[in-house]
């Protein structure tokens, strides 16, 4: 598998925009999201900022069709997708906070299994898994079990799993929170490269340096989102 000079997995991807309209989410007594509108266009690297508990993860999960909102809609280049499985098949990739890696598997197997489940031929899946691990600097750790990896290495495996899917829309929930400064810059560079390759990328972050690297910043607070640039 080739990687192009910008640091993405080579190969075509379908450009797709994500649009949230009047997204409302009530969790228990709390109105976490109150009629939120948000757009990420193909080729855009966007940051989602806001205080702890503002609802950033909730919004990313809704945009990834992993969570049904109380109200409002999410469309993908104008299309509705019925559920998370349809979204994954359409190229909507979610890198969740906490990584959600399968611990009895190796790093490489964590990349391979979702690709094989999407019906990607085994030879290509293996090539994509290896290329994505190389992009995040873990080509020597592919055979390690998840539990043998540090928190930061696990986070990089989770990002690699997202890159291996060659996403049209990449939703990354605090993907740099456990990383040192150098690795943080590498991961942010990879997310930017995904956008430059045509993906719509939305990254939640508490890190002002990471937010500054994005083209667009959405700030979420008290249920409302404000576009800051
Ligand atoms: N299942 C649930 N039931 C009730 N409240 C919930 C549930 N899940 C999340 N919440 C609440 O929803 C709010 C938003 O949580 P969320 O994790 O989306 O925020 P966040 O901005 O991503 O926070 P952080 O930056 O700390 O990760 C929080 O107040 C949280 O306690």
From TrEMBL:
Q: Which UniProt keywords apply?
A: ATP-binding, Nucleotide-binding
Q: Which residues form the ABC transporter domain?
A: 18-229
Q: Recorded GO terms, molecular function?
A: ATP binding
InterPro entries xrefs:
AAA+_ATPase, ABC_transporter-like_ATP-bd, ABC_transporter-like_CS, ABC_transpr_LolD-like, P-loop_NTPase
Give the residue spans that cross the bilayer.
none
UniProt xrefs under Pfam families: ABC_tran
Q: What is the name of this protein?
A: ABC transporter ATP-binding protein
